[in-house]
Amino acid sequence: MPSTREANPAKKVKRPKINQEIILKAYQLMCTSKRMAETYDENKEVCSKYVHSTSRGHEAIQLAAGMQLESYDFASLYYRDESILLGIGMQPYELMLQLMGKADDPFSGGRTYYGHPSLKRDGFPTIPHQSSATGMQAIPATGMAHGLKYLESQGLLEGKDKPVVLCSLGDGSVTEGEVSEAFQMSVLKKLPIVYLVQDNDWGISATGKEMRTMDAYEFAAGFKGMERMRVDGSDFVDSYQGMKKAYKYARDRKGPILVHAKCPLLGHHTSGVRKEWYRGDNDLKLHAQIDPLPILEKYLLETGETKKSLKERADAAFDTVAKDYEHALNSPDPDINDFDSHEFAQTPIIEEKGERKPKGAEKVVMVDAALHAVDDILKNHPEALFYGQDVGGTLGGVFREAATLAQKYGDERIFNTPIQEAYIVGSTAGMSAVGAKAIVEIQFADYIWPGINQLVEELSKSCYLSKGKFPIQSLIRVPIGAYGGGGPYHSGSVESTLLNIRGIKVVYPSNAADMKGLMKAAFHDPNPVVMLEHKGLYWSKVPGTGDAKTHEPDKDYIIPLGKANKVLEADEQKMETESSLVVITYGMGVYWAKEAAKKYAGRIEILDLRTLNPLDWDAVQASVKQHSRALVLTEEPIMNSFAESLAGRISKECFEYLDAPVQTFGAANLPAIPLNVDLEKKMLPNADKVADALESLLAY
C-alpha cells in the first residue's frame, strides 16, 4: 500500500490546472459514493438480498476516469466501478434500481448484478454488457478498440472525434491469460485503449504477495509498445491529471496505455464476503489512512474552500442518497411474464431469396461456395472484416477457405491473428459494439475450447442481460469433423457442447448451395452464430460425398436459419404398403444416410436439419408423424449428445404417432478419434453401419 501522507504543510498548496468546479464536483460525488455504501450496510436486509460491491477506496481514480470520458467514447468496466458510473452522470437512484433488481434498472431490467452496466444512451459513453468473470472484459474491450481502428482506416467513423476505449480492471485479474491475449493484440495493432488497473492489494481473501511477483505496471513492461503510467489512486488530483494524459495518448493514436492506480479497499470485497471475515485490524487501519475523501477534503481546504461549503456539498449528497434510496425501494419489480424476452435479437432474414440454381451456373465445392459468400459480403459491406489463424497473407487458411481474400481486400480487413482463440471469439463482442462486423475462424473444432469462456460469458448472455441493447453480431467459422487420418486433435465434433450454450445459434451445412445461403444469413443475423463446416465435405473428395458439390447459387441467395431441408423423400406408395422412416441428420450424416437408403428404395426420407439452433421442430415433427419411425444420425458419440436429446424430445412429443422406439446412431463413446484410419473407421459411423440400423428399425 502507499505510505501514509505526511502532516499538512503550513502554506497553501499550488492549484493544478484543473477547474476548481471539477474538483468540487468530484468531492460531492465522493461523498455520494461513500453515503451509498453506508446506506447499503445500514439496510443489509434489503441491500444484501443480491450480492453487490461498492467503490469505497477507489472513488478518486474512478471519478477521475469517469468524469473525463466523452459521450463518443466506449468503456468496459468491472463490478467495483460504481464511481465511474457516477462520474459519467449516472444517478444513485439508477444504480440502486440495479442493486435491488427492479424493473426500471436502466442496464438490465433486474437481470444482472449491481455494477454491471449495459448503457446505450445519448450523451453518455457506450458501455456494452460484460460478465462478472474477472479479467474477461479485457478481450471485448480490446475488440472495441480494434473495431474503432478498423472503421477509422476505412473512413467509416462519422465526425472528427477520436473515440477511445477505457478498460477497467482489478490488479488481481491481470494474472488471467485472457488479459495477456488482450495486451498482446493491443500492442500488435497499436490500438486506442486505456487499461486502468486498480490495485488495492487484495483479490477476495488473497493478498497481492500470494498471487503475483509483480504488479500490473511491472507486468505490462513485457508487452513492447505498451505505454505505462503510475498514479496515486487515492488522490483525485493526481489521478485526474494522469487519466487526462492517458486519454490524450490514446486519442492521439499513439497506441495502448496502462494506468496503474494504487488505492485502498475500504469496503467489503462484496456484500457476501465481508471485510471483517478475513482482514486484520492493522490492514484495515493502514487502508483507512489513505481514504480518498479526507485526502481530497484536505486539499480543498488548503486551496481556499471553506468547511462550511464542503459540508453543504456533503449534506446535499447525503440528502440525494436518502431520497434516491426510498425512491428505488418503492419502485416496481420486473414483470415476471417478461422473464424470457431478448434471448435473441430479431433477424431480418426470414425467407429464402435469390436463385439456388441459376441458369448456366457451374458446380462448386463447399469450400469455394464459402469463399465466394465471404467475398460477396466483404464486397458489399465495408464494415465487415475477416480474421483468424493463417487466414491472411498468401495462404488464406489451412483449407484455402480464404484464398485470395487478403490480396483482394488488404491486411486491414483480412489478417492473421496470434494463436489466441479467446481473442478471436471474444473480440467480436467489442467489434459488434462499435459497429464493425467480424467474421472469424477457429482453425479446427478441437481448438475452440480456449474460446468457450468468451463465447459463454460474453457473447451468449449479452442480448438477454442487456434486454436487447447489445446483441452481438458474430460469425464464427469452425472447420469440424473427421476426414480420414486427422487424428485426435483435428477430427472432433463439438456441436453438443455448443448447443448447451443458450443465446448462440449453430449452423451446420451439408452442401455448397446451403453453405453459401446460410453463410449470408449468419452474417446478417444480429446474434452470435457458429458455422460448423465439415472438412470432409469441403472438396467432395470423400467417397459418397459428390452431392456436396452443387450448382452455385447467385449472389443474392440466402437461406433463413432454422429451416430444415428434405434431401430425400420417400415414395408415397411405398409408405402406404410398407413401413418407412425418417433419418434426421446433418453434415456428413446426410451422405451416410443417402448411401444406406439405396438398399431400401422409396422407404427412407432424409431430413437435413441445416441449423441445429434454432431447430426446425415443425419439420421434424411433421416427418415423424408421417413415417412413425425415426432415426437421429450424428457423427458425435451418442451418449449425452444433441442427437440423444432430440430423440428424447421426439419420443415425448410424438409418442402417440410412433410405431417403434426412436433410434439414435453415432460414433462410439470414446474421448477422441484415433489416428490410424482403420481405428477411425471402427469408431465412426459409415453407410454400411447406418444401413444396418435402418434395417433394424424398419423391421421393428
From TrEMBL:
<dbReference type="InterPro" id="IPR029061">
    <property type="entry name" value="THDP-binding"/>
</dbReference>
<keyword id="KW-0560">Oxidoreductase</keyword>
<dbReference type="Pfam" id="PF02780">
    <property type="entry name" value="Transketolase_C"/>
</dbReference>
<dbReference type="GO" id="GO:0003863">
    <property type="term" value="F:branched-chain 2-oxo acid dehydrogenase activity"/>
</dbReference>
<comment type="function">
    <text>E1 component of the 2-oxoglutarate dehydrogenase (OGDH) complex which catalyzes the decarboxylation of 2-oxoglutarate, the first step in the conversion of 2-oxoglutarate to succinyl-CoA and CO(2).</text>
</comment>
<dbReference type="InterPro" id="IPR009014">
    <property type="entry name" value="Transketo_C/PFOR_II"/>
</dbReference>
<dbReference type="Pfam" id="PF00676">
    <property type="entry name" value="E1_dh"/>
</dbReference>
<dbReference type="GO" id="GO:0009083">
    <property type="term" value="P:branched-chain amino acid catabolic process"/>
</dbReference>
<dbReference type="InterPro" id="IPR001017">
    <property type="entry name" value="DH_E1"/>
</dbReference>
<keyword id="KW-0786">Thiamine pyrophosphate</keyword>
<dbReference type="InterPro" id="IPR005475">
    <property type="entry name" value="Transketolase-like_Pyr-bd"/>
</dbReference>
<protein>
    <recommendedName>
        <fullName>3-methyl-2-oxobutanoate dehydrogenase (2-methylpropanoyl-transferring)</fullName>
        <ecNumber>1.2.4.4</ecNumber>
    </recommendedName>
</protein>
<dbReference type="GO" id="GO:0007584">
    <property type="term" value="P:response to nutrient"/>
</dbReference>
<feature type="domain" description="Transketolase-like pyrimidine-binding">
    <location>
        <begin position="364"/>
        <end position="540"/>
    </location>
</feature>
<dbReference type="InterPro" id="IPR033248">
    <property type="entry name" value="Transketolase_C"/>
</dbReference>
<dbReference type="Pfam" id="PF02779">
    <property type="entry name" value="Transket_pyr"/>
</dbReference>
